[in-house]
Amino acid sequence: xxxxxxxxxxxxxxxxxxxxxxxxxxxxxxxxxxxxxxxxxxxxxxxxxxxxxxxxxxxxxxxxxxxxxxxxxxxxxxxxxxxxxxxxxxxxxxxxxxxxxxxxxxxxxxxxxxxxxxxxxxxxxxxxxxxxxxxxxxxxxxxxxxxxxxxxxxxxxxxxxxxxxxxxxxxxxxxxxxxxxxxxxxxxxxxxxxxxxxxxxxxxxxxxxxxxxxxxxxxxxxxxxxxxxxxxxxxxxxxxxxxxxxxxxxxxxxxxxxxxxxxxxxxxxxxxxxxxxxxxxxxxxxxxxxxxxxxxxxxxxxxxxxxxxxxxxxxxxxxxxxxxxxx
Length: 327
Known about the structure:
Elements (H helix, E strand, L loop, with lengths): L4 H10 L4 E3 H5 L5 H9 L3 E5 L2 E4 L8 H9 L6 H4 L5 E4 H8 L9 E5 L10 E5 L7 E4 L2 E4 L1 H11 L3 H11 L8 H8 L13 H11 L4 H10 L1 H30 L3 H16 L1 H11 L1 H39 L1
Helix pairs in contact: 6-7, 7-8, 7-9, 8-10, 9-10, 11-14, 12-14, 12-15, 13-15, 14-15
Protein name: Transcriptional regulator
InterPro entries: AbiEi_N
Pfam family, one: AbiEi_4
């Protein structure tokens, strides 16, 4: 019984980045001859032994890594493997998936629970049991977390400047790095870099310095994340509003019946409100409390200025009244 090959291959490739394995195709009735014929006429492209890409599928920088990973369990579909992965991408290959650093990913470090061997030059197996918190799924691939990846690279690569670039990229944008967790993972490598045995925090600090990462830069990156930036801005807004309410409450007796003074105060408050957005960026440099302290001082100074201006018309009225009586 003949089969229509193209729909089968397209269905296989649809959930696997445009890729499929020979074993997957064979299980659905597609022969090697069918695949070889389509490879010759350009409808398929072989990426690795037993792994093909459909012709016309956009090429990405991760295709070879995905093909290598798929070849390790060729009978299973990619989506079937990610819930309890037996093969996890690690090392420089994981950093490439995280889009961090510029370390050459080949040979691809693949971490397995059972001992494996291969003659392929593009794959390097590492037998290790990973904690569940050290594995994440990115773009359909199970990879080591950024903390586990950095710690492994410190041990594997040895050049802290290269690994520092990975960490620097990881701290930018929306991503978050658990520095406490990273310090714990770095502990076994501390003595190798001249630190007290088990002092992962010291090695982390050395790594941060090599990457040019300081607390101010890290705080600025943190504030740039939309959720955190919005939360800090909300805190500053509440603080500003509270300070303004306090000032207005103090001046309320003097404001009664004076529309001109109220308008004058509103004009003075406007710059303070427009400067609110700048406070959020300042928070990145000194964290919240010192900024709010300075802001309170500014508000107090503003209150004194307003009070001084309010007292001037009062003194003038009193002086005028005394002069009238004397006349």
